[in-house]
Design a protein that fits this description.
disordered N terminus; binds adenosine-5'-triphosphate; six-stranded mixed sheet; four-stranded antiparallel sheet; NitT/TauT family transport system ATP-binding protein; globular
């Protein structure tokens, strides 16, 4: 199976967000979604963004993906401006809705980015085969998306985001619409995929346990206008050393409590005094 790792000579920083502010024009006046946000994500690092609803998590991810532009500040991806990184296909994207084309088979969906970028039929099919194996769907290449469960569709979307071996994955609540069991299974699968690909990941979630289980660092954002309130170093080992039983360990609960307290402080509550709006503290 082909795996991708950051070349030793490549930049050590995957994403560099510097003093980014994003102000939207709305009917009721201006909305400051992000205010002076700075954040670095190292090559190969998994960073989650968590914070109350409307604090600008998706906005920040969209800015990194160059789907939107900051009002002020700069964003570099692997040392290039976000626009150049998008043009160079340096990252893959997966969102909450799998976003598969219903009239194309699973394999054809995975091949789509390769097809759009002119890769030949044989090479595309070989890559799709590797990716189907990576996400555990080898037997479903010929199925149509509508014949798959939500969790399977999400795995297809992840396979598609990995098609061009990106060194960076941008994921906006990719498991948000799934039941708890499927969600936990896919989290473990994502850890495995990441251990194999060594891609950096920026991951938006509302779930504290999900953020802790997956991440090297958890970025806690303040209510709108979103700022980086605190960064929690999870320090629970590398992706390949994490497994289901981690969820039962004392250290895991300690990190969950640390993120929860940081969210309460960001929200202006006393620590551990009730939930921050829009964040799942289960
Ligand atoms: N295109 C837009 N035009 C106007 N306002 C916008 C636009 N996009 C986002 N906003 C506003 O910016 C703020 C941040 O939105 P964003 O979707 O980034 O938050 P979020 O933290 O991802 O929220 P949630 O957790 O609910 O998904 C919100 O107040 C939202 O209404």
């Amino acid at each position: 199976m082909r795996v991708q790792s950051q070349p030793p000579s490549g930049p050590a920083v995957a994403v560099e967000v510097k003093n980014v502010t994003r102000i939207f024009a709305a009917k009721s006046g201006e909305v400051t979604a992000l205010s002076d946000v700075s954040l670095d994500v190292a090559a190969g690092e998994f960073v989650s963004l968590i914070g109350p609803s409307g604090c600008g998590k998706s906005t920040l991810l969209r800015l990194i993906a160059d789907l939107d532009q900051p009002t002020s500040g700069t964003i570099d991806v692997f040392g290039k401006p976000a626009k150049a990184a998008r043009e160079a296909q340096d990252y893959g994207i997966a969102f909450q809705q799998a976003g598969l084309l219903p009239w194309r088979s699973v394999q054809a969906n995975i091949e789509l980015p390769l097809e759009l970028h002119g890769q030949g039929k044989g090479a595309r099919a070989a890559r799709a085969k590797e990716l189907l194996a990576l996400v555990g769907l080898s037997d479903f290449a010929g199925h149509m998306p509508g014949q798959l469960s939500g969790g399977m569709q999400q795995r297809v979307a992840i396979a598609r985001s990995l098609a061009e071996s990106p060194s960076l994955l941008l994921m906006d609540e990719p498991f948000g619409a799934l039941d708890e069991m499927t969600r936990e299974r896919l989290q473990t699968e994502l850890l495995r995929i990441r251990a194999e690909t060594n891609a950096a990941v920026v991951f938006v979630t509302h779930s504290i346990p999900e953020a802790v289980y997956l991440s090297d660092r958890v970025v806690v954002m303040s209510p709108r206008p979103g700022r980086v309130e605190r960064i929690i170093d999870v320090a629970l080992g590398s992706a390949k050393d994490r497994a289901e039983d981690l969820r039962e360990e004392t250290q895991f609960f300690e990190r969950v409590a640390a993120v929860r307290d940081a969210l309460h402080i960001a929200h202006g509550d006393a620590p551990a005094s009730g939930g921050a709006k829009g964040v799942d503290i289960r």
